């Protein structure tokens, strides 16, 4: 697995035109999700960048999320992130994110510089899930930068699956 991660690290570095501090983290993340080598070549590498944000929602550690200094986030029409550093601090310690227990069933679409993740988010307290919501989050990640510049989140109740 280590050889695959090293190859992936080299591939991502070439694709984005040089080594950036978050490239190693992105390569490790891709390897963890089984996207090494050829698996990622058919996928836009910016999905791995946006995935670091989703991983930070799960782990409550935003320190490795590649955000532009002037990155902003809007949630249901309200500005909830005011800079890259503010977003990292919020992900790491904000009470609004502490209730997130899991993110699952992530589906990606790419349209130019916009990457959209549609997923289910489980929220709860004291080890218990209290609710599940569907989140559609659009990330603006320019192809020549590979940092998140803008996030727009839409949250709605999740529909129960009938069996």
TrEMBL record:
What Pfam families does the annotation carry?
A: DUF8021
Domain DUF8021 residue range list: 44-153
Indicate what this protein is called per its UniProt record. Answer: DUF8021 domain-containing protein
Q: What InterPro entries does this protein map onto?
A: DUF8021
Lineage at the top is: Bacteria, Bacillati, Actinomycetota, Actinomycetes, Mycobacteriales
């Amino acid at each position: 697995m280590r050889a695959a991660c090293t190859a992936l690290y080299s591939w991502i570095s070439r694709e984005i035109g040089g080594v950036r501090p978050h490239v190693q983290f992105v390569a490790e993340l891709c390897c963890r999700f089984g996207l090494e080598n050829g698996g990622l070549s058919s996928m836009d590498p910016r999905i791995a960048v946006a995935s670091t944000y989703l991983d930070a929602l799960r782990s409550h550690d935003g320190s490795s999320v590649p955000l532009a200094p002037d990155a902003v986030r809007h949630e249901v029409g309200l500005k909830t992130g005011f800079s890259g550093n503010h977003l990292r601090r919020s992900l790491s310690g904000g009470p609004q994110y502490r209730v997130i227990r899991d993110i699952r069933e992530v589906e990606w679409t790419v349209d130019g510089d916009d990457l959209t993740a549609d997923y289910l988010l489980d929220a709860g307290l004291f080890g218990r899930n209290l609710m599940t919501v569907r989140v559609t989050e659009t990330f603006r990640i320019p192809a020549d930068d590979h940092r998140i510049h803008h996030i727009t989140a839409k949250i709605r109740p999740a529909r129960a699956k009938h069996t």
